[in-house]
Amino acid sequence: MKKKILIIVSIFSLLAVAGGAGLIYSIGHSSSHLHELIMLHQVEIQREHLLLNIHQVQEDLYSQTTTHPESAEAMKNHASKMETAIKDCFSCHHTQSVTERLSDLQHQIYQFKEALALSTRVGRSRGELEKAHVIGDSLISKVNTMIVLTNQKLVERTESSLQAVNQSKIIVLLLVVAGPLMVALFGFMTLISFAKPIRTLLAATKQLKTGDLDFRVAGLKHEFAELAIAFNDMAIALRERLREITENERRYRLLFESAADAIFILDAEGTAAGKIVSANQAAATMHGYTVEELTNLNIRDIDTPDVAQRVSERIERILLGEWIKVESAHVKKDGTVFPIEISAGMFEFDNHRYILAIDRDITERKRTEETLQRAEHLRTTGELAAGLAHEIKNPLAGIKVTMETLAEEPYLTQEDRSVLFKVVDEIKRIDGLIKGLLNFARPPKPQFMSTNVNAVLDAAAQLALQNRRQAEGVDHTIYLVRGLADDLPEIVADPMQLRQVFMNLLMNAVDAMPERGTIVLKTTFEKTLCAITVIISDTGKGMDAAVLSKLFQPFFTTKTGGTGLGLAISKRLIEEQGGSISIESSVGSGTTFTITIPCNKGKDVARDDGE
Ligand code: ADP
To answer: What is the structure's pLDDT at 608?
Structure first.
């Protein structure tokens, strides 16, 4: 296309230059013709002038034969003018042929002048006068001949001059009319040839703008074909860049969305400081909101009131460039408060400052820490208690024996004897407590053996109900519902310790139903986990949150005469066998204990011991 335009412009320029040169030549040509024409007219005038002079002299000659002859002086004067006229002719003519003819004419004029001189002298002859006449006529004839020739030339030159002028006119016409027309035509054609590819490229750009990066431009020629290639390359590069950006975005979104920690992006500036701009799914799940609900909140809305008061101060520290790491507390949508560890710092985007906060739910960590602390506390207090119990046990046994012996003395009154028996009973109770304490502090090592959990549970239930019957003398106040699994495999466990645990739970269930009620026993086997689950539930008085929170603490009891060691020991024994114990209870409805015992723990321990 560029080449084509260059060629066409060059042709136009050459045509314009040629036209201009032609015009200059043509004007020069016409003007030289006109100049010649003017010269010819001047020559013609000179000739006419010469002819007039010759005629004048001829008339002077004729007047010599009349009664009023011209004076000799006047004739001489006219002859001189004639001579001057022929001399003037030389100033216009320079070609050899014309100069020769003029020289011949001048010679003849000299002869005519001499003949005149002779014919005007006194005593002239008639012959001399005629001779002068003849020369004069010959001169007139020659000059006339020359005039005819000159006239012919004049006509020819006039025609050629007109032709030259016409040529100039045509060139001017071409330059003035055809030139602009051709330029306009060329411009129009160029515009048409530009408009189509530009429209194609414009449409392609719009298509690209809609996001169709697979669109390609085709069918363009010349420089536009190069432009189309560049455009297509640009679309490919854009698609590749977009793919990379989308891939990165997807990767970061995956990181953001799949993170187990809650991730918040908070506004850090002005009145919007603390507003949740973005949050991941973990944040929503952790706080019991949807992501949309979270983005309508300020971080203060999910902080506990005392923490919310410190938010502004924390934001200021972060804006000063500090990356903070603190333990704090958040409030779920249902009002539950839970501990979190916050790690937060600032980042800038589009000249606006934001805070990236990563919040970790540390409930489990806190619970583990507390359990460890409690275990440590129990261990030390247990050791202390065990040492103390050990120290008390022997003197107490001595006191008991002494009291029993003393009670046998015959001199004692019945009243004194019953006091001593009460003392012995109390010593027995203290002894039981000490045994329980020692059991809790230093539980005996489990004796693992093949155990039928259903049989152990059943026996414990019979015993617990028998105790109850013996205690109250009735047998219809507690109903026992058995839902024991048939497919329960025998497991390796300590049946005596399991019996102790079941007895503790069953005795508590019985105690919780002083009037009447039902105990439901259920066992299931979890094949995939290889674990047996034992459920003991009652329809007793149940427990409130305060009792539940202290349930497994040693010495916690709500019963008169209770030791508060039953559940603490049960938990410890079950955990020793690799199991767990959990509880669900509500006041007035009853309580359900769920015990899980793994099948293989006993085997593993037995193998370890063997090694
Ligand atoms: P004790 O039975 O000597 O009080 P435990 O450790 O066995 O000690 O029980 C602690 C306390 O737990 C009891 O005093 C009682 O308040 C409560 N408890 C245990 N089991 C039940 C139950 N099934 N129903 C209601 N309360 C219970």
So the answer is: 52
Q: Among 117, 121, 51, 113, which Cα is nearest to 80's?
A: 113
Task: Encode pLDDT of 508-555 as tens digits.
Answer: 999 999 888 999 999 999 988 889 999 999 999 999 999 999 998 888
Q: Which one, of 358, 359, 357, lies nearest residue 329 by Cα?
A: 359
Pick the CATH number of 259-361 from 2.60.40.1120, 3.30.465.10, 3.40.30.10, 3.30.450.20: 3.30.450.20
* 315/310 Cα distance (integer angstroms): 9
The domain over range 2-183 is classified in CATH as 1.20.120.1730: yes
CA of 110 relative to ligand 1 center, distance in Å: 177
Cβ of residue 549 lying under 6 Å from some atom of ligand 1: no
Q: Give the distance, in angstroms, between the CA of residue 146 and the centroid of all CA atoms in the same chain.
A: 102
Q: Report if pTM > 0.90.
A: no
Q: Does ligand 1 have an atom closer than 6 angstroms to the CB of 380?
A: no
Ligand 1 centre to CA of 531 (Å) is 26
CATH topology of domain 448-610: Heat Shock Protein 90 (3.30.565)
Residue with CA nearest ligand 1 atom 16: 558
3-state secondary structure of 583: strand
Buried b (16+ CB within 10 A) or exposed e, 364-381: eeeeeeeeeeeeeebeee
